[in-house]
Amino acid sequence: MNDKRLEENRYDSRALNYSNTKEFNAYDAEKSYILDPIEDYYSLIRNISGSLRFLEIGAGMGENSEPILKAGHKLHSTDISSESVEIMKKRFQKYNTFSAETADMESLPFEDQSYDVVASSGSLSYGDNYKVLNEIYRVLKSGGIYIALDSLNNNPIYRFNRYIHYLKGNRSKSTLSRMPSLKLLNEYEKKFHETEVNFYGSLTWALPVLNIFLNEDTLRALSNKFDKKIKIKKSAFKFTMKAIKL
Questions:
Q1: Into how many domains does the chain fold?
Q2: Is the distance from CB of 126 to CB of 105 less than 8 angstroms?
Q3: Is residue 25 domain-resident?
Q4: Does residue 24 sit within a domain?
Q5: 22 inside domain
Q6: Is residue 224 part of a domain?
Q7: Domain range holding 137?
Q8: 231 φ, ψ to 5°?
Q9: pTM
C-alpha cells in the first residue's frame, strides 16, 4: 500500500470513529505555550476583509475551518479522506457559505485562478511539496493570498520524534521527508510576489522539562520572548505564512 492510500485510510478510520455529538476543537488539549502560532493563523484569516472565495486544502474534519466561515467568507474545504469530508458537511451544514469535496492537494480539480484565498493548516507534508506549491499558485487569482500554519522540520529533536511516530505507525514515511523546511519556505518566497513568515516555538523542545519548574503561563511568556528576541528559525517548532500572488 502506498503512503497516500495509507493516509487516506488512516483519516477515513479517524473520521468513522469521530462522535458527532461531541464538540470538536483540535487544540483544546494543546499546551498554552504552543497556541500562539494557531492564534496567529486565525488572526491572518480575520484580517482578510470582504466576502471572498476561500479554498482549504487538507482540511481534515474541519478542525480549523470555522474561523473562515465566522469571518464571513465563502469556504470550499477539501481533503483526501471522503469520510472526513462527510463529517465536515454535517458539522457546518448551518452555514450556507460552506461546501466540501474529496480532493487530492497534488492535483486540485479546479480551474486556474479560481480562488481569492487558499488556506492550509498542518497539511503540507501530506503531498509532494512542489506539486502542492504549484497547485496552490495555479488556483489563486492574481493578487490572491495563501495562508499556512504548519510544523517546521529543521530541528533534529523534532525530526527524531516524528521518526518515532513513524515507527509506531502513526504517520507514513513520506511525511517525514515532506515536512516543511526552511528550504521549502524559500521556494514559496521565490514563487510568490510577497511573503511574510513568522516562526514560533524555538524553545518548545525544552519546555516539557522546564514545565516541571515553571507554570504554563510563564513558559508561554518565556517562549514568546525568546522567539521575538533571538529569532532562531532552525529550531522553530511551528510557522505561519502569508504569501501574495503577483
A1: 1
A2: yes
A3: no
A4: no
A5: no
A6: yes
A7: 3-17+30-244
A8: 55, 55
A9: 0.86
Torsion of CA 7, 23, 40, 211, to 10 degrees: -90
Residue 119's identity, in one-letter code, is A
Can you tell me whether residue 68 is helix, strand or coil?
Answer: helix
Instruction: Give the Cα separation of 141 and 145 in Å (integer).
Output: 8
**CA 209, CA 207: separation in Å to the nearest integer?**
5
pLDDT category at 205 given cuts 50, 70, 90 is low
As a whole number, the mean pLDDT across the chain is 86
Give which of 113, 38, 127, 150 is closest to 79, Cα–Cα. 127
Length of the chain: 246
Q: What is the DSSP string of 187-210?
A: HHHHHSSEEEEEEE-TTGGGHHHH
Does residue 155 contact residue 92 with C-beta atoms inside 8 Å? no
Maximum distance among all Cα pairs of the chain, rounded to whole angstroms: 54
Apex 94 CA angle, 89 and 97, nearest 5: 75
Give the tens place of pLDDT for each residue, 20-47: 545 555 544 455 556 788 999 999 999 9
C-alpha separations of 225 from 153, 156, 229, 230 in Å? 22, 22, 6, 8
CATH, residue 152: 3.40.50.150
